[in-house]
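Per reviewer request, we include the raw input and output of the structure prediction for the construct analysed in the revised manuscript.
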Amino acid sequence: MHHKPVTVIGSYNVGMFMKTKRLPKKGETVICDKFYEGAGGKGSNQAICAAKMGAKVHFICRIGCDKYGVDALLLYRKIGIDTKYISVDTSAHTGISFILVDEKGGNAISVAPGANYNLRPEDLDVYRSIIAHSSIIASQMENRLETVIYAMKLGKELGVTTLLDPAPAQPLPDDVYATVDIIKPNETEAEILTGLPVKSTQDTKAVVNFFLEHGVGHVLLTLGEDGLIYGTRGVCTRIAVPKVDTIDTTGAGDAFNGGLMAALARGETMHDAIRFASWVAALTVTRLGVVDAFPTREEVKRKIKETG
């Protein structure tokens, strides 16, 4: 069966990973056990994961004219993502991320956006046709805020399902939410967006209601090992996530989004898509890294079958 593609508008950052026993305190230097370099950026990660999960993916982003930009293009060609929607910026470096990971899988991340911040709203108008023929359009917040907002408005205008991953979070204008069909914040991001605490069951209901009352169609409030809260009109329910031995949580949110988009593009229900996405994320955190840690679709299907 032919499925409409997924279009991701977002960032590419090369990731510089360092594995350490614990994260340093302010002003402290710690010796790390391991270093490696890999592809990153929330948009890129989610596009790659969706492709690995079987979706046809269009990725719209901006990279620098440097070694890291060349590496990105080679990676997308290897994965099977068309590179014709990726523009090369001669005036800025490719985005860079520095990621520290401790022995419990916790992380601290710093990002220098570079060319990502030169992707502007008017650039997206060039791609109206491919967006209009997509099943879903997704964005994160590692690009300029006005570009992210325009991506959601453009998707809504063209009748395409819109997904916003509000990370790294910052407050949004109230009118943006009506253009978002699916929002997926974690606890910290939800607090920043709503100004509400996320400590108790009552808190999570209030946060979900905030988004729904502002016009969002589906709310996926992720709570780490405690699962997630799914909210839509007349529904607010907690969904458990698979229990696994965690090695590195860095790519969990991106893995979830990639799996969710691929499943929805195949026509799965939201409930089944969440289940599939939860297993994609769970298998990812059992491995070090992000792109190399994403499972195959066959691994995910096998796990779902094994667990009933």
